[in-house]
Write a structure and sequence with these properties.
The chain has helices at about 5-30, 35-45, 45-60, 65, 80-95, 105-120, 130-135, 140-150, 150-160, 165-190, 190-230, 230-265. It is mainly alpha-helical and about 270 residues long. α6 runs antiparallel to α7 (about 130-135) and α11 (about 190-230) packs antiparallel against α12 (about 230-265).
């Protein structure tokens, strides 16, 4: 059987297999990255992002306590990288929890308050009550800052979270269809080598489809960040976006290489 005749006979099946595999791979990576809070914490907590967030946070939040004479001479409002990582974990949990109330502001103020108390005691000052008063009086301002900065992100992700069950169901259906189509292809070609050659073709086509899908998703997401997120946080979100897309690209590239190897190693059986 010639190569062109074989592809013509099974072309529709190969296209459907490619679409099903594309859905499975894309949604599978999405569940393990975008919907995985531990993965997101790891990406957000990179050294580059921690430095950016620390600079942004110290610049924006320092004024909340520095204008109080009792604590104005202290530097504990200048958060450390350890403090920032604690705040990052709380922020990610806030975004991924079903509760719509953001609690990250309380975590930030508590961290600042604890640091101020430690430094005050180190300087022989007993002003815990004044620090608590200074911190508590700024909860309203802090909540507004958090809502302005993180609210749009939380709103978008909360909408995505509602799709999680739909995504899993779609993957299951696509997987079942893929298996049925693969069995059908196996029964038609009646040759394991021919079957694996076609599966290699499916992998190559899937990789190409995924490349177009990623390109068509990446740039709109960049535009969404640019138009909805405050300037100081954009670099952080760009880094997160690039980190997640790097995972997509690496898996798509690996799929492409493996499919090429499979397709090439079984090509000679097309002519037997």
């Amino acid at each position: 059987m010639s190569k062109s005749l074989s592809y013509n006979r099974h072309g529709v099946t190969l296209v459907l297999l490619s679409i099903c595999l594309m859905i499975i791979v894309f949604l599978g990576i999405t569940l393990s990255t975008v919907f995985n809070r531990d993965y997101v914490k790891k990406v957000v907590s990179s050294d580059a992002n921690v430095s950016l967030i620390r600079s942004y946070t110290n610049q924006k939040l320092g004024r909340l306590v520095n204008n109080y004479s009792e604590v104005g001479s202290l530097s504990a409002a200048d958060l450390s990288k350890k403090d920032i990582k604690k705040i990052i974990n709380a922020s990610v949990d806030d975004v991924y929890n079903d509760d719509t109330k953001l609690t990250i502001g309380d975590v930030i103020l508590q961290t600042i308050g604890d640091n101020l108390k430690k430094e005050a005691k180190a300087n022989g000052l007993n002003i815990d009550s004044q620090i608590d008063s200074a911190v508590n009086s700024n909860k309203g301002i802090m909540d507004q800052i958090i809502q302005d900065d993180i609210g749009p992100i939380e709103q978008v992700l909360s909408e995505l979270q509602t799709l999680k069950k739909v995504i899993k169901l779609t993957m299951i259906i696509s997987g079942l269809v893929f298996v049925l189509l693969a069995l059908r292809l196996w029964s038609k070609v009646k040759s394991s080598m021919m079957f694996f050659h076609h599966i290699g073709t499916v992998g190559i086509v899937t990789s190409i489809l995924l490349a177009f899908l990623l390109a068509g998703t990446y740039y709109p997401l960049q535009g969404l960040i640019a138009s909805n997120i405050e300037y100081n946080l954009r670099d952080v979100l760009y880094n997160i976006l690039n980190g997640i897309f790097l995972s997509y690209i690496s898996i798509v590239f690996m799929l492409f290489i493996l499919s090429i190897l499979d397709w090439g190693s079984t090509t000679k059986y097309k002519y037997r």
